[in-house]
Specification:
Number of domains: 2
Largest sheet: 5 strands, antiparallel
Structural class: alpha+beta
Oligomer: single chain
CATH superfamily of the largest domain: PAS domain
Number of helices: 8
Strand content: 15-25%
Order of helices and strands: HEEHHHEEEHHHH
Strand order of the largest sheet: 2-1-5-4-3
CATH class of the largest domain: Alpha Beta
Distance between the termini: 30 Å
């Protein structure tokens, strides 16, 4: 597997108790490659199963499955950077919350998207479990509100080659300078990445976190 930028690696290794694994999806053959960590995130030992798209979607929480399927299909078509926070049911019947980040790779000759590469991050340990349904509903509603911001942070992190904290700082400064709420800035970043498909357009949209910074 080709090495991903070290900046993304650093971004995803922040925070204790987060299991991080690599994946690669070959669009021509439909074959998935998982690192050992991804097998364990899904409740398997390495080599227990052959990872497939059907297997992956089968483990997604029923309420999140169609959304994740749409995200993968969109990324396979456009190659755009993407991130998703969703739940899975692992092979042992445990519910886990994952963050998935990735992007497409294109064939140099045809410029077609040939594979998706990225990371699975198990963030279950970082989520507080609540005992009653009311609290659970509140957490899910809050997560839904944060989702665009987290997705935009992933896009900015890849576009600028920085960690998630620095990505959010760029979004915060852009929010302050333009007098637009951070969540709206996030939606604009997602819209730019979705409709224009250029990381350079994302870079151009953002206000440097250091006012004295200049674009190389």
């Amino acid at each position: 597997m080709s090495a991903e930028p070290l900046e993304i690696e650093r971004a995803l290794t922040l925070g204790a108790n987060h299991t991080i694994g690599h994946y690669r999806y070959d669009l021509a053959t439909g074959e998935w490659w998982w690192s050992d960590e991804v097998y364990r995130i899904h409740g398997f030992e390495p080599g227990d199963v052959v990872p497939t798209t059907a297997l992956i979607l089968a483990h997604k929480h029923p309420e999140d499955r169609s959304r994740v399927s749409r995200i993968l299909a969109h990324a396979a078509t456009t190659g755009e950077p993407f991130s998703s926070v969703h739940r899975i049911m692992d092979a042992k019947g445990q519910e886990r919350t994952l963050t998935v980040i990735g992007r497409g790779r294109r064939d140099p000759g045809t410029h077609r998207v040939t594979e998706l590469v990225g990371y699975f991050v198990d963030v279950t340990a970082g989520i507080s479990r609540q005992a009653n349904e009311a609290a659970d509903t509140s957490i899910r509603a809050s997560a839904a509100t944060r989702a665009p911001i987290e997705q935009a942070k992933g896009i900015v992190a890849i576009a600028l080659g920085v960690d998630p904290e620095a990505a959010f700082e760029h979004m915060r400064v852009t929010s302050n300078v333009t007098n637009v709420a951070v969540r709206q800035v996030a939606r604009q970043i997602i819209e730019i990445a979705s409709t224009q498909g250029s990381l350079q357009d994302v870079r151009t949209f953002l206000v440097p976190s250091d006012p004295a910074a200049t674009t190389p």
